[in-house]
User: What shape does this take?
Amino acid sequence: MDAKKYLQRIKVSADRNLDLEYLAKLQSGHMLNIPFENLDVTRKTPIRLNTDFFSEKILERGRGGFCYELNGLFQLLLSELGFQSRLISCTVKKPDGWAREDSHAAILVYLHQLPYLVDVGFGDSVRQPLPLTGEEKTDVSGTYRIKATAEGKFDLQRFEDGKWKILYRFSDRPVQLDDFHDACLFNQTSPESHFTHGDLATIATKDGRITLSGLTVTKSEESRKNKFELSVGKKKIFFSGNLT
Assistant: This one.
């Protein structure tokens, strides 16, 4: 992987200070410049768990990806820069229960032996490293914390409507990219996977987020949301509104 090209893509300069501030800058830069998207899934283009494949797609072709691609490549960058990092598996909490177990990939980064959750592949979520201590962190997307469970795992939580909502559950056990083979195949092919139900592309902005879902574009800024419908012609797709 070309770390220099990666840093150029996320608009972050190289830095020898491998501290929390630089880690946060890397995470924010990634989320502001590389989209989360499932366009290969809906077009039935196979996604292989291979960082060379991820690098060619994201760095050479300027694409985005979903969690295995984004966090898989970002963890490799962190390791090449000198951070102590490893992939972990997570189970996403849905409104009606839990998603497939251990089917989401995220990252733990250790700074002075203290672990921080870093995730650039979960769409609209925390934009800064989050310690596993329960400390609350707030950014433009919300207020977050990590709560330890009685079973020795951890819950990523966001404060919504006056209460803490679980986004996903994880353990600090290290995993390899290949460990997600079955989950990656499931998320590309199963009708139970929400990635197979239509196009999704979303990217963070300084003040919010822009999301394409099907033919609907949503631009969020702080507490405001504007929606625009796309109309499909023979060869072109047109906005029916103005994103500015």
